[in-house]
Amino acid sequence: MISVNQAAYVPGTTSYRFGYNSIPNIPITGAPSDTNYRRWSMLHDGSNYRMYFFKGSTNNKLYQFAWNGKSYAYGHNSIPELTLTNIPADADAGSFSMVHSGKLYHLYLRRLGDPTTLYQFLYVPGTSNYKYAQPPAIPTLTCTGFPSDTDWARWMMLHDNNAYRLYAFKLGSNTQFYQSSFNGSTYAYGHNSMPVLNLEGTPANCNLSSAAMLHDNAAYRFYMQTV
User: Fold this and answer.
1) Tens digits of per-residue pLDDT, 191-209?
2) Are 158 and 215 in contact, with CB atoms under 8 Å apart?
3) Is-contact 52 42, C-beta < 8 A?
4) What angle do CA 106, 227, 212 make, to 5 degrees?
5) Taking the CA of residue 153 as centre, how many other CA atoms within 13 Å lie in the half-sphere pointing to its CB?
6) Domain ranges, residue 171
């Protein structure tokens, strides 16, 4: 059974530690057989911890899960299937990130061939759709100032009630990742951030190819799937 290992930020340090202030491992249950575990993201919306996966090989369908007290359960307190609409022709659906900003649910895809450009979608209330360029979202965002060895294949985002933050691993490292935050015009490396963060105590069964992050109003949390 696929599950996620959970870490949390240790205050006063530059480290996220697995098992710190966390349930160490959380099952994922009820997933449809065509759930694409390679393409996933998470968020906390003030009430619920939520997890999302693409449906199979589609580029516009997502399955939604939520924490039910025991597992991330498919369809729990959720719209089970969501649809991305108005997708730009050059959007890269090979990975995605999601955040909740206090009132709005945001979803981000990167531009194909240019991972430093982000396309922003918003959930349309009363529907099952996330729409690109849905007001009041800024349709296209950029990432600037990141080191040349940034591993853009492994990127994550969160909103911590004060700032929108974007993270990406250091190429070749499974213990260091870079931090940026939105400065009003771009996701600027090191802006209002610790530029480099570290992972501690990574379990041996972690799938190191991707990760997800969220802020739950109390802690910054980091997740990797198991293998």
Assistant:
1) 999 999 999 999 999 999 9
2) yes
3) yes
4) 20
5) 9
6) 3-225
For residue 168, which of 192, 189, 150 has the smallest C-alpha distance? 150
For the full predicted model, state whether its pTM sits above 0.85: yes
pLDDT, tens only, 83-129: 999 999 999 999 999 999 999 999 999 999 999 999 999 999 999 99
Q: How many structural domains is the chain composed of?
A: 1
Which amino acid is located at 130 in the chain? Answer: Y
Q: Minimal CA–CA distance to 174: which of 145, 221, 207?
A: 207
Query: Which residue shows structure tokens 């959720």?
Result: 78
Measure the CA–CA gap between 77 and 34, rounded to whole angstroms.
Answer: 21
What is the torsion angle, in degrees rounded to the nearest 10, for the CA atoms of residue 222, residue 51, residue 210 and residue 71? Answer: 70
Measured CA to CA, the distance from residue 119 to residue 132 in angstroms comes to 7
Q: Is-contact 132 122, C-beta < 8 A?
A: no
